[in-house]
Amino acid sequence: MDVRLKAFERLLNIMDDLREKCPWDRKQTLESLSLLTIEETYELVDAIQEGDMEELKGEIGDLMLHMVFYSKIASEKKAFDITDVLNAICDKLVHRHPHIYSDVVAEDEETVKKNWELLKLQEKGKKSILQGVPKSLPSMVKAYRIQEKVKQVGFEWEEIEEVWEKVEEELGELQVSVDDRESSERIADEFGDVIFALINYARYLKIDPEAALEKTNKKFIRRFKYIEDHATKPLADLSLDEMDELWDSAKKIEKNNN
Predict the structure, then answer these.
(1) Is residue 48 within 8 Å of 56, Cβ to Cβ?
(2) CATH fit for domain 3-79, picks 1.10.287.1080, 3.10.20.600, 1.10.220.30, 2.60.120.10
(3) Could you tell me which of 35, 48, 133, 170 has the fewest CB atoms within 10 Å of its CB?
(4) Rounded CA separation 158/257 (Å)
(5) Which residues contact 224 (CB under 8 A, 6 or more apart)?
(6) Fold identical between 3-79 and 128-209?
(7) Which residues are CB-contacts of 222 (< 8 A; sequence separation ≥ 6)?
(8) Is there a contact between 26 and 20 (Cβ–Cβ < 8 Å)?
(9) How many other CB atoms are found less than 10 A from the CB of residue 58?
(10) Contact between 118 and 126 (Cβ < 8 Å)
(11) Domain ranges in the chain?
């Protein structure tokens, strides 16, 4: 037997044992697992961003366990089993890659993505290309996916300069809203427009805005911890100028180490 199949069969058998014999595993439902799956997904992303391949292996395993767990619960409900799940994804992949499994020609990535979206609409009878964007996605990721979706039907700026002009336009509208002391709700709307435009600009620059922001978060934490570690008195007693001086020292150290 293929070692991959043997390993997968082992996981399925262990899942059967756990569901039958373990009080915790026996108690789990689709709903209770869903929150844990979200946590595991973020841990997978952390491992990728840290470049930790050993940790990544473990996180992939955790997510794979969850997929098997969901399938096991569904089989108990007589809804479907793991075989149905695997066959369904195989059928979907074959259908959405006609340039591989049929006579359709797609010589570049953009054509493949356009064909994928059109086939999705046909399969599920959807009336909007945006129906495929999950409602529960974090807002920044959702904005990126929305922009990627509409791009497939040509709703896209032609030049990156136009995208930046849109960012500047939205920034100007936000500033006017603040200067005119408009309602907090109106200012929030304008602020959201700025973020959406910046995410679009990041997309044109081939930058993942979520990953870029997380990198900045980590940089801020690293530098602030430097302030905490090198402060000669409690932070509350430091002036802003004193904290800025330590902050600049942290920046210089990072620059010298790079």
Answers:
(1) yes
(2) 1.10.287.1080
(3) 35
(4) 40
(5) 247
(6) yes
(7) 250, 254
(8) yes
(9) 12
(10) no
(11) 3-79, 128-209, 211-257
Reply yes or no on domain 128-209 having CATH 1.10.287.1080: yes
Tell me the C-alpha distance between 184 and 188, whole Å.
Answer: 6
Residue entry with tokens 């990627």:
148
Q: Compute the Cα dihedral for 252, 254, 255, 256 and give only its sign.
A: positive
Taking only the tens place, the pLDDT of each residue in 193-217 is 999 999 999 999 999 998 899 899 9
pLDDT attached to residue 134: 86
Question: What's the rounded Cα separation, in Å, for the pair 102 and 118?
Answer: 16
Specify the residue for token string 């599920």: 124
116: tokens are: 């994928």
Token pair listed for 38? 């979200």
Q: Which residues, other chains included, contact 84 with Cβ-Cβ below 8 Å and sequence gap of 6+?
A: none
